[in-house]
Design brief:
Layout (H helix, E strand, L loop, with lengths): L2 H47 L6 E5 L2 E5 L1 H53 L1
Antiparallel strand pairs: 1-2
Helix pairs in contact: 1-2
Length: about 120
């Protein structure tokens, strides 16, 4: 294996590992968003069961502060919209990175085959 081939192999391997690391981060973030989505959907459903005169509180630091029910419900709805947008963005990024990872894997495999082919000829 020549020096150029070794460098190309190392470069391609490092690029593939970087893509795998980035993909793992995005997937972990996506799972976190799923958890937040479930939690906020649960809160949103609870608002439907509340009476009009029910008091709603918001935790700010260690203190519970009274909040208008409609304002709190609107905040949860906005949060749900934001989380859904982030999930869509994460899914698109996962798809993009998966394609890039597949391409990098194929290129690495071709490079390895070329090196083995050259070694067999020598």
């Amino acid at each position: 294996m020549s020096v150029e081939q070794r460098k190309a192999l190392e470069t391609q391997t490092m690029a593939l590992q970087a893509l795998q690391g980035e993909l793992a981060k995005i997937v972990a973030n996506r799972q976190k968003l799923d958890s937040q989505l479930q939690e906020n959907e649960l809160v949103h459903k609870e608002f439907e069961h509340l009476n009009d005169d029910t008091r709603v509180y918001k935790m700010i630091g260690p203190v519970l502060v009274p909040q208008d029910k409609e304002e709190a419900k609107a905040n949860v709805e906005k949060r749900l919209e934001y989380i859904n947008d982030e999930i869509t963005r994460a899914d698109q990024k996962v798809e993009q990175l998966s394609k890039e990872q597949e391409k990098a894997s194929v290129e690495l495999f071709k490079l390895q085959m070329d090196i083995q082919g050259i070694n067999k000829n020598q």
